[in-house]
Amino acid sequence: MRSPMDENTFMNFYKNTVLGYSNNLQRHICRSLEEQHRITFEEQRNLLDPDKIIYFESKKDLRGILSQTTINKDFIGFYEHWEFVKLYKYSVPLFYQTDSYENLIDILTKCGITEFKETSFTPEFILNTSLQDAKPIYLAEQDRIFIKFILQKTYFTSDSFEQTDYRYPIVLYFDLPNHCLEIRYDAIKYTEAFDSEIYEKLVASCIDWIKKELGLSLYTCEHTDAIKIVNDKQNEDVKMYKQMMQMSSGGAAELTAAEGSDYVLPFIGEIRELIDENEDLFNEATEIKQLLTQYLNDKEATASYPYIYVKWVKPVESQSYIVKITFDYLSRRYTLLQHITGGCKDLGMERMNDAIKYLCESGSFVKGEKI
Predict the structure, then answer these.
(1) How confident is the model at residue 266 (pLDDT cuts 50, 70, 90)?
(2) For 6, what's the count of Cα atoms within 13 Å in the CB-facing half-sphere?
């Protein structure tokens, strides 16, 4: 355990972290601050409660707003909560076994893990560099629990090559009804001594911590029927968007569904659809139908699908989002979800929660072998 750092140094970690986000994410934070009445762009409103509401002249001054609020102790609770509920780029889903929501809360309490309360949160001004040394906190909501670790990391700025310290959160998200958990994390910023196995080590450390500290039994995420279930034409809200197919002959291709179509992917999907649409003709030529069907079955059985892109289609296109699912990730043992930002305006956790809920409840992901 490291010694506490001085307050200014600790607060600058918040500032460096947030200023390293994309403009879209910074804009999203500023909107949240305004919606929660923590900042205002109306001078008269600021006069009503100047101690709690900070006035800014322009919404366009993202860096000014974030620079001022991240080093203000009154906003520590806001930014700590934001790290629980933000959109993360990656997540590794697993299944776990426990009796109940209350049982998991009891385990966390016995382990000495503190519950996060935004209005009363006081940091210890300590940031460790390894997950084993980090002291997590948890956030409890109905049917879900978050455990958050914060590590300190450093990257070099592209222009001056100066070292910049930043916060690196890792969140364990427990979906209680489905007995599923996700290890959520972002990309690590580039350093000269970048470890190519850093994510594998991160996931392994999280798994070891859950088993050792919480005493939970963990299971892999089995995805045998994922492609079949996502491709079900009866489901209009979740569609296959793109997939990589590797043939047994060694060839490979990334197949993309056309926008506005029924998202049946070529060429296997199209041939099967052709057979279904011309059932009477193919029934008159049973040998040809059998040969084609056998060919398609063989291709599906011998091909592998390293990854697929799945699109959650919303009535408003800017709310639609895409998740890349990589199978047999990290030594071919785990599944990886990559949440694509793209043009989606939803940069919070709900799209992550909805995705893992669908994948579990639809049977795309099921409990696999014990880890």
Answers:
(1) very low
(2) 2
102 class by beta-carbon count within 10 Å (0-12 exposed, 13-18 middle, 19+ buried)? exposed
Assign residue 330 a region (left: φ > 0; alpha: ψ between -120 and 50; beta: otherwise).
left
CA–CA separation, 241 and 312 (whole Å): 9
Q: Strands 163-175 and 217-222: what pairing?
A: unpaired
Cα 96 vs. chain centroid, distance in angstroms? 18
State how far the Cα of 313 lies from the Cα of 321, in Å rounded to an integer. Answer: 7
- Could you tell me the two tokens for 13? 């970690």
Among 328, 323, 330, 333, which residue's Cα sits nearest to residue 354?
A: 323
Torsion of CA 349, 76, 142, 235, to 10 degrees: -10
CA distance 329 to 228: 20
C-alpha closest to that of 119 among 26, 34, 52: 52
- The Cα 124–Cα 135 span in angstroms is 10
Spatial CA neighbour of 230 closest among 260, 264, 259: 264
Tokens of 184: 């959520």
Distance CA 346, CA 31 (A): 12
Which pLDDT tens digit goes with each residue over 137-190?
999 998 899 999 999 999 876 566 688 999 999 999 999 999 999 999 998 886
DSSP SS3 for 161? coil
Q: Which residues of 161-188 are buried (b: 16+ CB within 10 A; e: fewer)?
A: eeebbbbbbbbbbbbbebebbbbbbeeb
